[in-house]
Amino acid sequence: MDEASIEIRAALATGANRDFEFHTLRLDQPRADEVLVRIMAVGLCHTDISCRDSNMPSCPAVLGHEGAGIVERIGAQVTGVTVGDRVALSFRSCGQCTTCLAGDPAYCRSWVMLNFAGCRPDGSATLSDDGRPVAGSFFGQSSFATHALAYARNIVPIPDDLPFEHAAPLGCGVQTGAGAVMRSLACRQGSSLLVTGGGPVGLSAVMGGRLQGCATIILVEPHAARRTLAIEFGATHVIVPAAASDLAAAILALRPDGVDYALDTTGLPAVQTAAMTVLAERGTLGIVGLSPPGTPIPGEITAVMMKGQSIRGIIEGDSDPHSFIPELIAHHRRGGKGFAGRRVDDRDRSVASDRLAADGHHIVGFVSHDLRLREGRPSTGQP
Prior knowledge:
alpha/beta, Quinone Oxidoreductase, Chain A, domain 1, Rossmann fold, 7-stranded antiparallel sheet, 26% helix
């Protein structure tokens, strides 16, 4: 037995557009600054699929960046984390650069290295398959597995009575959408908000708009199930894009003077252009949807200047997970909606298939990891 590592089961990305494959791997024991977490639930985010299909990090790789679980071991230099803690995992940041010190860890200057490089900063791998390195350290966790190595800066304690499957999406999807509206855009009470795309991030943005007291919240979304959820979460209007030959006109029919804020979660240039078109004077468009490289900024620059409009990019809702995730949990305890929902326990509909990410009826997918008992085929669910 290799005492420097433990045996785990993990969903392995082996190449672009290929189903994840379940493998037995070796995971390093935690170094001085690392924390070993037994993963109890993990969200399936579109970013996991996008990174697999763009080979970032290079396959074979273990992805997963919305983990939640129990701390099993801590390194000698770790503080603020105790064995047995129930935790949610989020993105990793260095804590030492100017943006981190300014309270903006989502824009850490070491972001790419710490979240996408597939290894530790010193180049060493945390995972191996029969002695061969496997890319890991995805968002400082790689939580599509029974266990993950994380760090004090991307670990957030959660209450004992908060289910792991409710905590998991807080680490990325929920904090990105809600944070974009509550922190990045800081929507004013009584204002109007347009959200394009009703996936996990978009629905979380709708919830954020309700919490901010927006008087009008418009969601553009093709899937009926998501539109229904959006109404439950606080949307005042929903638009079916296929039924609107002119999306901007359909929005302006609801808000003739335009919207104060717009948030695009789709990354689609045509949708971004429509959102820019319907902005009111002094309006702001936030971009969280990833567009193809080389996509131009939407809008006509003179109109942007004359109307005093703004366009801004947003990462992780400008959130500091250590403060914002507890804030989201507090909202939930005061009666907020959006954490819970229907669950799917059919083992064939697992993280091994893209259908979870592609099916419009799925809001967030979870993998409940008891892989040893279920022979490597996790159950899934979504809120």
